[in-house]
Design goal:
Largest interface: A-B, 30 and 30 residues
Radius of gyration of chain A: 14 Å
Distance between the termini of chain A: 42 Å
CATH class of chain A: Mainly Alpha
Shape of chain A: globular
Oligomer: homodimer
Helix content of chain A: 40-55%
Number of domains of chain A: 1
Strand content of chain A: 5-15%
Largest sheet of chain A: 3 strands, antiparallel
CATH superfamily of chain A: Winged helix-like DNA-binding domain superfamily/Winged helix DNA-binding domain
Number of strands of chain A: 3
CATH topology of chain A: Arc Repressor Mutant, subunit A
Number of helices of chain A: 7
Structural class of chain A: alpha+beta
Chain lengths: 107, 107
DNA sequence: TTTATATATAACTGAATAATTATATAATCA
DNA sequence: TGATTATATAATTATTCAGTTATATATAAA
């Protein structure tokens, strides 16, 4: 059972537009760093820093595949966030519109 | 249906230990400013500023009774926060331990 | 109508934090 | 091995934000 401080720290992570967008994108499927850079139209270091925080907060997990790093949601152990995540607007169209193949990454 | 920015703004409000504590206290019953000052062991202006933000974010509502202001939770219209609020640790003991009568306020 | 009480707002300060720029690490390929 | 690519980290800057101090408003009581 998480205490107030752990919960407020979690909310702080969710309380940033770019991070919350990242999480909503990851709801669709796992994504590599470069896909996130494209989807968010920001810099690679900026994505990396956000991913580090999300990972430290236990909200995402990473999988290294060769030289590429894929991130995916890790919220199965946080039932109190279920409804919230279900209500995140769908990003299906945006995520479907890109692929590692098109971006020449992760092939 | 709230968009990502509205949701991240809401999370930002929840992402502060004192504000999240206030909300968990209000889960028990409505409270006046001075009760919150006592429960949180902080200054009256600090409480007022947090309440203003929570009110602006639509998370609490206020009721003026004479010279006193009572705050209460307003989350019925936010189903995506239901589970989250249910998981906030109970503050029943703390809230039960104080009363306007003891504090000589709101009588 | 002066005084006291309850709460809010404003101005300020210091700390936290997001984004950028520059650099480092780590893996792959020629 | 040296060059290239993918990602991470460090250092810096600018902004945001929580808390304090001082002051204002508003209601009630003397």
């Amino acid at each position: 059972m998480p205490d107030i401080e752990q919960l407020s720290d979690l909310c702080k992570l969710l309380g940033d537009k770019m991070r919350l967008t990242i999480l909503s994108l990851l709801k669709e499927r796992e994504l590599c760093v470069y896909e996130l850079v494209e989807l968010l139209q920001t810099s690679q270091p900026n994505v990396s820093q956000h991913m580090r925080k999300l990972k430290a907060g236990g909200l995402v997990k990473e999988a290294k595949k060769g030289q590429w790093v894929f991130y995916s949601l890790h919220i199965e152990d946080k039932p109190f966030l279920n409804e919230f995540f279900q209500h995140l607007p769908s990003q299906k169209e945006k995520v479907d519109a890109i692929s590692c193949e098109d971006l020449n990454c992760c092939d």
